[in-house]
Amino acid sequence: MTTTLNAPISAGRELDVKLLGPNFGAELSGLDVATADEAQLTLLRAALIEHKVVVLRGQDIDDATHVRLAQRLGETTVGHPVWDSGSDVPDEVYSLDSTDNGFADVWHTDVTFMPRPPAGSVLRPLVLPPTGGDTSWADGELAYASLSEPVRELADQLYAFHDGTREFGYYLRQNRGGVGNVWEGSRVTELTPSRHPVVRIHPETGRRALFVNPGFTSHIEGVSDAESRALLDLFYAHLTKPEHIVRHRWSLGDIVLWDNRNTLHYANRDYLPNRRVMHRVTLRGSEPVGPSDT
C-alpha cells in the first residue's frame, strides 16, 4: 500500500491519509473506531504497518471501547508488567497520570525489558494541559538505513540487554511487595534483563530497525563498558536526529497507534504544574529476531 499526501486508501472503503512527515507517520480520517467495520480495521492495520505511527482524531471513546479497538487489531496484554493502574480501569489499561509519576520523558520503546515486548501501542488522552505534553516518535528503520555500511554491519552482529529495574524495580519492591502483574501467563516477581538483537527484523515486513533505547537498554553484550557506552551513544544520537522524528500535539479525542517493533517515543514534560493523564493499551508481541538469528 502506497499513499501520498491527502490520498485515499481503499479496501472496499476509503480513508483519507495526511502524512505527518516525508518518511513515516500519518493522520487518517474517515474512520470512527466505535463503529468501524472489518474492512476499515483492515485498512487501519495496513496503515499502521506502512506508516508506523497513525493518528486518529475526533474519537470520543471510553476505556471499554479503547480496549475493544485494540482487541480487534490483535491480542492485548495486561496494561503493564509491574504498574498497578487501579481497579477503576480495565486490566488492559496502563494509566499514566502526571500527578502519580506518570511521565515518559525519556526516549524509549514500550516494555523492551520483557522477553516479548508489545507489538504495538494504542494511546489516548483523558486530561491535557492547556499547552505542552507533545509526544514525538523516532523511526528505527530510517535510522538503521541511514547508518554507514560498516556501522550497519557491526550493528547486525550485536545484542543488548534491556532492564526495567531503573524505572520500575523500586516500585515493584516497595509499592507492590515484589508481586507484579501476570505477563505472558506468568506473575512478574522480578525484572530479569532481557537480551535482544540491536537490529530487529520486522516479523511482517522483513525490514530492519535499530532496536535499542535509552529508557531500558542497559548495555551491549560482549564488549567493554566503555565500548558499550560509546556504541549506544552513537545509536541514540543517530536514532533521534530530527529527520528521523515526527511530533504530535494532542487534543482530546485523539488516538495514536504505533508499531512498537521499529519506533521509539518521548513525551514532553514541559507542562507542569498542570496535569496530563493518558491511557495506553498494548498489543501482544513476539520475541525480537535479528540478522544473526536467521
Automatic annotation (TrEMBL):
Specify the TauD/TfdA-like domain's residue ranges.
17-282
Can you tell me where the transmembrane regions are?
Answer: none
What the entry lists under Gene3D superfamilies is as follows: Clavaminate synthase-like
Do you know which InterPro entries this protein is assigned to? AtsK-like, TauD-like_sf, TauD/TfdA-like
The UniProt entry, under Pfam families, shows: TauD
Q: Does the keyword Cytoplasm apply?
A: no
Question: Where does the source fall among the domains of life?
Answer: Bacteria
Q: Which GO terms describe its molecular function?
A: dioxygenase activity
Q: Which cofactor does it need?
A: Fe(2+)
**What UniProt keywords are attached to this protein's entry?**
Dioxygenase, Iron, Metal-binding, Oxidoreductase
Which protein family is named in the record?
Answer: Belongs to the TfdA dioxygenase family.
List the protein's name.
Taurine dioxygenase
Gene encoding the protein: tauD
